Amino acid sequence: MQKRRTLAMVLAIFAIVMAAKPSLAQQNTAEKSEAAKPAGSYRLDFTVSEMDDSKTLNSRAYTMMLTGARTGQVRAGSRMPVQSAGSETGPVTMSYLEIGQSIDCRIEAEQDRYLVLDTAVDISSMAPAPTGGEVPLSSKNPIIRSLKAHTFGSVEVGKPTVISSLDDVSSKRRFRLEVVVTKIR
Question: What is the share, in percent, of the chain residues with pLDDT greater than 90?
Fold first, then answer.
């Protein structure tokens, strides 16, 4: 009888302690959500470099400010008109292609000196005209070259990090996207 009473008391204390203490799974979820809530303000300096072998041919810099889990966007380029032939009864129509560079970035999580960035880059350009020829926009459809990357990864604040490197399929050129993150507050 004494053993049953002791066992019942131990089980009751165990049940009270377990009910009061959150489970390990709940603690891990709370820790993850705490780390996953980006709250700081950051300046992100992106550099897009065009390289031929190891020689840098061209380099462009773009900066965006991000706070919390908002998405930042940078667009640089031109709208190129492209004429399409109309039907016998319809008029000729004009449409526009976006040519240039676009970068979309979102801070997914921050922890200590590191940020987890979700970054998308799209680089497009018009292919050069054939040797000795010119492609008038009103009569020919231009060839558009495009390089796209979507990355998800951790970067250290203050340290330059290459987050994407893309080879141009029609040349020996390589495009590299690098970011430096600076904490503002």
Answer: 38
